[in-house]
Every structure is written in structure tokens, then in C-alpha cells.
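#lab-general

N.A. 3:47 PM
ok so I finally got the sequence cleaned up, no stray characters, all 368 residues accounted for. can someone with queue access submit it? mine expired

B.Y. 3:52 PM
send it over

N.A. 3:53 PM
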Amino acid sequence: MKWSWKLGEFLGIGVYVHATFPLLLAFIALPVLMQGGTLWDVFANIVFVLVLFLCVVLHEYGHALAARRYGIKTLDITLLPIGGVARLERMPSKPSQEFVVASAGPAVNVAIAVGLFIVMTLAGVAAPTLGLGWGNESFLERLFTINIALVLFNLIPAFPMDGGRILRALLATQMPFPRATQFAARLGQALALGFGIAGFFINPLLTVTALFIFMGAQAEAQMVQQRSQFENYRVGQAMRTNVRALTPQEWLGAAIDSLMATGQQDFPIVQNGRVVGLLTRDALMNGLRTFGAYTPIHRVMLPTAPTVDSNASLVDAAETMQERQLGALPVTMNDTLVGMLTGDSIREFLRVQQVLKTARQSETPRPV
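B.Y. 4:20 PM
back already:
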């Protein structure tokens, strides 16, 4: 994710913190100081928030490790002021798999809460008040309460929460996946409207939550609708074959000449017949700005850019482009470059298919 700093890598998964995260710490610290609190009070609150976000990271690792069980890689985990996001390489293909992956996150918070309860019991700490102690709870009690709240919040049956995905997985065992998504999305939006109305009378935070849920449900429905459009299509059907490739040793100036001559935005970089990288338009422009036109391409290209086989599913390829935030993917057959898959080529292909479908539906049978 852009504007993020890497904290480290654990179990092969990079953990990042978004640049907006310090705003949360400031939001925590300033009210304490304005109410006459000491620096120690500020420090204690910040430590609590950091420990809380450790629980959030563990929650996301629950999703990531469950997905790994099904051969799905996690690209990274990013901490935001509103929580954490684990970016999976792709979504689980079976309802049973999605159920396990979606349930794994809340299950981690349940395990943390159980562990805290056992520790408090052994230590003789008072029974947790679940936030009803009017601010007199201990550090462990507060952490226990927050983990219970995280479980309940994430199990709300609405996208993008885990509860929405769990509901979709259960429905998908009885109906087609797109229909299950539509049902879960509509339920989520109905709940969002309820939260939004309640926010005007109870707490404005509910209105913010409602907006988050409503937009998440809409995005999920659109993504699944788009996925259904791609079903049964292969990458080779939607790729562009008239592609200009460059070598790592050529100057950036040569890429500019190719861009102006062909209008091609992203260039596969080929060495000895094999794709060794990708020169995106953004990388090209940044390279020109930083190093000038007489700089070899290998200095600014993406050396680890993914490729896709021409017989691969168009759905999986489109999701890879979205997850990696790439505008194009080099397409290969037997490790040899045969074309480029771009957002424009996918959209144009789908338009053609829609026109053909409409034409077939409007055809009237000719008399024999």
C-alpha cells in the first residue's frame, strides 16, 4: 500500500504501518493533555493503543495463515488508524475455504480474550467488567474488553467485515456465489442505513461506521459482478499481441520513443527471450525526472514484476493486477512473451463480448 512504512517481516509476510497512523496517536494524546493529564498518562494510553494494534496484527495473521493453508499468499499486512488490512494474493475459490479464512481472524481475538481471562483469574484480578467499570478497569481488563468488542464488530454480517464474508460463504453453499454476494451486500447496506440513522441520536461514530460498511458492501458487490463477467475467459483472449518489448540495457530515451510512436504505456523487459522485468509508465517518468534519458532501463524497471500464462484465468489475472496495483501484465506461453494484458484490453474485450451477446439475443430464426 502506498504511503506506508515497513515495520518488519514475520513468517514471510511484510507488516507495514500507514503514514496516517501517527494521527491516531496524536488523537489519543491531545485530549489527555488538554484535560490536564500528565505525560505518564499520555504514555500509558499510547502503550495501550500499541498493544491493541498488536492484537489487530495477530487478527490479520489469523487470516493470512488460514489462507496459506489453501495455497493463497498474503502480499502484506498494513496498519491503518481504523484497523488492519491483510492483502491476499487472491480470494478463496470455495465457500468452505472463505468460511475458514474469514473466521480465523475473530478466532484469534477469542483466543486472546480467553488467554487474558485465564491470566486475570490466576492473578486474582477482578472479573472483567466489559467496559462497565466507568473507566476504572485495569490494563488487562480493558484489553480483554477491546478484544471481545473486536470479535463482535467483525462478526457483523456485512462487508467488508469478516461477518459479511462468513455469511456469504454459508449462503454460497445453497445458491450461486454472485447471488450470495448480492444478498450479503444488500443486508450490509441495510444495516449501514440503520447505523447511520442511530448515529444521529446516539454517537456520530456510528455514522462513520455506517459509511464504511455501506461503501464496503457496494465495492464487494461490484467486484464479484466484475468477476462473473470474466468467468470462462482466458488471458490470451483479452491480451494485446502488438507489443513492443525493450531490453534492460536500452536507455530510458528509447522507451520514450516507443511510448510516443505506439502509445504503449508499459513495456515488458526481455533478455535472451525471457521476460526479466516491467517498465511501467510511472517508473519511466520518475526515472527520467531523477536520472535523465541516458539511463539504462534496468536501473528503474520492476525486476520482480509478475507474468501470466496466456491460458490462465482472466479472473485471476485481473485480480493480480488489482492487488499488485499494476496497469499491465506481460503474457507468456512456454516462458516466451506473446502479449500484454492491460486494463484497457480487458475493458475492450468485455465490450466486444457484450455486443456479441446482445447481437445473438436479438437474432431472429430464419424460416427454413
